[in-house]
Amino acid sequence: MSLKVKVILILLGSSVFGLMASMSSYLLDEQQKRSEIANNSAPVEQAQLLAEVIMRIREEYVDALEDEELIDNAIEGMLKDLDSHSRLLGEDDYEDVRISTTGQYVGIGLDISLEEGEVRVVAPLDDTPAQRAGILPGDVVIAVDDVAVDTQNTAITITRMRGRPGTPVSLDVMREGADESLHFALTRAPIYVKTVQAEYLGDGYGYIRLNGFTDNTGAELEAVARELVDQQELRGVVLDMRNNPGGVLDAAVEVADVFLERGLIVRGKGRIQEARFEEYANPGDIFSGIAVAVLVNRGSASASEIVAGALKDHHRARIVGEQTYGKGSVQTIIPLSDGRALKLTTSHYLTPSGRAINGTGIKPDYAVSAQNATQRYRGPGSDITPGDDTQLQEALRVIGHNSLELSRAP
Predict the structure, then answer these.
(1) How far apart are CA 77 and CA 72, in angstroms?
(2) In sequence order, what DSSP letters do the residues of 305-350 get, joined into one string?
(3) What SS3 class is residue 96?
(4) Torsions phi, psi of 132, nearest 5?
(5) What are the φ and ψ backbone dihedral angles of 241, each rounded to 5 degrees?
(6) Does the active-site annotation cover 146?
(7) Would you say 253 and 306 are in contact if contact means Cβ atoms under 8 Å apart?
């Protein structure tokens, strides 16, 4: 989850020796500028030691190694033992972060997931090449451009679907009831991902699903929230964040703000000034007077936990489902001069009550395990009905819904 995109350019020398000399010189300059560390030579000595080790490896290791490989290994070694979220991002990984932040990419517009060893279509996005071609929820993707799907690495499959606008790509899918695979010839186009889906379920109850947190999520949620409230006599609403891995911190604050009239949403603790923050709700609860249930599971992480934690601590919502993932840290994406980026943990966040949830997660008020992980309602167009989703049924029950007439197709 990004705090803010911070630009730090590091000019790399043409050789490892030039780089290490620059590091030593930089550290020495900083040491001279700061009187409080004037007598501390440890940073310079450590930089010199690192340079010496790299030089020995470069000259004497049994196999010849390129300077670039040595430097990459040194960087990855520094990051490896920090935590599971800090790492060096290659250009493709950096692009994935950009997509998850902006919600924009070039591709065919499929929401897919790995279920029981199959790459299954959750849903085609509205007004995209995949939807116009007739790909349906539940279809199983078996090949992209005649290359079989690797279920051990779905990222490769996703990458193959993306490309430049106007370029062709083909998909082969298996569909329930079909004897043979179906072949689709598609043309890639700009895709704008909507992270919010909403539906009026009837009897005074609404359903909102968040599948991510991008720069646009807050505005999307506010729009559908006002539409639900203006068009229906709502008594309750379910906010579904199951399997939502998180995203942009600002979006989490905006989402929580939609449901809160006032109060602290999240607090950050870190070493640098930007990593120490407090975010508060603005006056105006769009769902004022309306009961709220939040659906979470083990796949709910990061920004999802910020929202769930804030609404739980302010007693604004009942949390239903399973204990969340437990990612209570904030990562800053720092672009580097060679097109890559550093993803670095810069802060730990606390819920309004002061709880640190890193490694523990948020415990639901009503624990409900999914009887079948595939029986999860995903909003309009889902091949699973609300009545077949036991966790959704419980969430509706705890906010007062007594009707069992939700098993009809949405």
Answers:
(1) 8
(2) HHHHHHHHHTT-SEEEES------EEEEEEE-TTS-EEEEEEEEEE
(3) helix
(4) -65, -30
(5) -120, 30
(6) no
(7) yes
Nearest to 216 by CA among 99, 130, 72: 99
Give Cα 135 to chain centroid, integer Å: 25
CB burial of residue 286 (10 Å; 0-12, 13-18, 19+)? middle
Whether 15 sits among the annotated catalytic residues: the reply is: no
Question: Model confidence over 157-179: pLDDT tens digits?
Answer: 888 999 999 999 999 999 999 99
Name the catalytic one among 313, 329, 343, 382.
313
**Residues paired with residue 343 on neighbouring β-strands, in sequence order:** 87, 333
Catalytic residue among 312, 327, 329, 347: 327
Among 302, 304, 329, 382, the one annotated catalytic:
302
The β-bridge partners of 165 are none
Domains and CATH numbers, the chain: 16-98 (no CATH), 104-192 (2.30.42.10), 196-398 (3.90.226.10)
- Residue 1: how many CB atoms within 10 A of its CB? 28
313 is catalytic: yes
- Quick: pLDDT tens for 256-286: 999 999 999 999 999 999 999 999 999 999 9
Please, what is the average pLDDT of the chain?
86
